Amino acid sequence: MATLTIELPQHEAQTAFNLRRWAELLADPELARFEGRIETDRHGHIIMSPPPAPSHGSFQLEIGHLLRTLMTRGRVLTECPISTADGVKAADVAWASPDRMRELGNRVCFPTSPEICVEVLSPSNTDAEIKEKMALYFDAGAKEVWVCAQSGTMTFYAPKTAQPITASQLCPEFPKRIKLR
User: Which of 50, 79, 59, 61 is nearest to 151 (CA)?
Assistant: First the structure.
């Protein structure tokens, strides 16, 4: 079997297009009627996902609460749209320092990534999809990407490391497992 390699454009080259396209999508009244998550690919095509299971949102809320409690000087965001080399992707939860928030401003789509991006896994997520999203978040400037399994187990990643790190370097007190109440 032949290996296919797709070379994505540089993040900077894609950002202006992504921000324009995202503004168009947000202004579309027909699109506003749809429930669920919307992301785009690098061509600006819409990728829609149905609303996730209730436990997905519960994990998002609990992770956000813990981040806000443990990292009081930053800002916690959910469903955070980030411009990447492969379109706009929405991190389930993100955390940005005050300095990063000053850089990002009050935009509807961030041109660079907050320091921490968290993906909460759904049954439909594949390993390849999550690895791609992690690479895109790191390329966009994330310092760490965290993955929350459906069991609540947290896995932490730093840039340029194929293997997970034992704990977050930005938030070492963050638990290795999220327990829903």
Answer: 59
Q: Is the pTM of this model over 0.90?
A: yes
Separation between Cα atoms, residue 48 and residue 86, nearest integer Å: 15
Convert the pLDDT of each residue in 35-78 to its tens digit: 888 999 999 999 998 888 889 999 999 999 999 999 999 999 99
> Strands, DSSP E only, in the chain?
37-40, 46-49, 75-84, 87-96, 116-120, 144-148, 154-157
In the chain, what are the domains? 11-157 (3.90.1570.10)
SS3 108: coil
pLDDT (tens digit per residue) in 109-135: 999 999 999 999 998 889 999 999 999
Closest CA to 172 of 151, 146, 150: 146
Cα–Cα distance between 137 and 144 in angstroms, integer?
9
- Asked if 51 contacts 36 with a C-beta cutoff of 8 angstroms, the reply is yes
